[in-house]
Design goal:
There is one protein chain. By secondary structure, the protein is of the alpha+beta class. Among the domains are: 72 residues, Orthogonal Bundle (434 Repressor (Amino-terminal Domain)), CATH 1.10.260; 81 residues, Sandwich (Immunoglobulin-like), CATH 2.60.40.10. The chain contains seven helices and eight strands; from the N terminus they run αααααααββββββββ. α4 runs antiparallel to α5. The longest helix has 19 residues. The protein is rod-shaped, with a radius of gyration of 44 Å. The N and C termini lie far apart (102 Å).
Length: 219
């Protein structure tokens, strides 16, 4: 920056060098024409406060090819523009959209979680399925004091028969030996899911000692 030259003269000389008009410079820089006219006339008091003026210098420096930082320091020391704080920087636009990058991963994780639980909803929250291999009928006559109840549990975590937990095989199959009392016996089979529902199946067995009972299906 030459000594003993003010920004007004420097600014006007740069415009002449580039063969520009203030109107054309306004179009190139996006700075309001009247502010450029104030600069050309040296009317710094009519210009916006320092943060905006500093921004104007940066734009003009790129277009007119001069060191805006050096001129800013000189103008700031001369205190010819209105200040707004120690930093004299443009305030952040609180209405500007935040960068979407920081929201991408949480959104992806949320989508994966929703997809996972959606795909496994019935597995986690649905109703267990129980099939009874024997006795297949809701009501059965039997002459033996012992009956072996057998079946299979799918999509369930726990099987209870008449209040006792039944051990499940790896494939979900199970069986339970039950001693019968003479007369009508009720067998309550309850299948439960930890986060889901439970179902109940009732089998009634009439035990009449001495009578021939049907042969249960082979295991």
């Amino acid at each position: 920056m030459p000594e003993n030259i003010n920004f007004q003269d420097f600014f006007n000389s740069k415009i002449r060098e580039r063969g520009l008009t203030l109107k054309k410079l306004s179009e190139l820089s996006g700075i309001t024409l009247k502010y450029l006219e104030y600069l050309s006339a040296g009317n710094f008091e009519a210009l916006p406060s320092a943060p905006y003026f500093r921004g104007y210098l940066e734009k003009l420096g790129r277009i007119l090819d001069f060191d805006d930082a050096e001129w800013w320091q000189n103008i700031k020391e001369e205190e010819v523009v209105k200040t707004s704080g120690t930093l004299d920087q443009l305030p952040k636009n609180r209405f500007a959209l935040s960068s979407p990058v920081k929201f991408i991963w949480p959104a992806i994780i949320l989508i994966l979680v929703v997809f996972y639980f959606g795909a496994r909803f019935s597995k986690i929250f649905g109703q267990p399925r129980v099939s009874i291999a024997y006795p297949t009928e809701a009501f059965t006559n039997i002459a033996s004091q012992k009956i072996v109840v057998r079946g299979e549990l799918k999509d369930g975590d726990k099987l209870v028969i008449n209040g006792e937990v039944v051990v499940l095989e790896d494939d979900g199959s199970w069986e339970k030996n039950i001693l019968l009392e003479p007369g009508l016996n009720t067998i309550l089979i309850t299948a439960k899911k930890f986060l889901g529902r439970e179902i109940r199946i009732i089998r009634q067995v009439l035990y009449k000692p001495g009578e021939v009972s049907p042969i249960p299906p082979s295991q």
